Amino acid sequence: MGNLCGCGEIAKCRTSWTQFNPGRRFLCCPNFMDPTRNCNYFRWVDGPLPNRWYQGTMYQLHVNLVNAQDQVVQANNQHSRIAFYNRVLIVLILGMFLVKFI
Ligand SMILES: [Zn+2]
Description:
Number of strands: 3
Order of helices and strands: EEEH
Bound molecules: zinc ion
Number of domains: 2
Structural class: alpha+beta
Distance between the termini: 75 Å
Low-confidence stretches: none
Oligomer: single chain
Number of helices: 1
Mean pLDDT: 95
């Protein structure tokens, strides 16, 4: 059975990605998203990180991952825009041919 928070609900396990505790799991209130219901229950699941090198490396890897994910989202958006303009161009070109040959 899981740990209960102050609301009597099973605590939610999440992972910290702060500079000081990157990759360290903790338990918190499952209502943490709603400030009016959050009981502020908090408890570390993992012990402290082994050293500063590990802490810095984990944090940097996470920052790199977030940046890479942002770049993928931006590339997908750009691709969607280009695909849209390509369709508009095709319709325009087809329209020009139709006008010419009717
Ligand atoms: Zn709670």
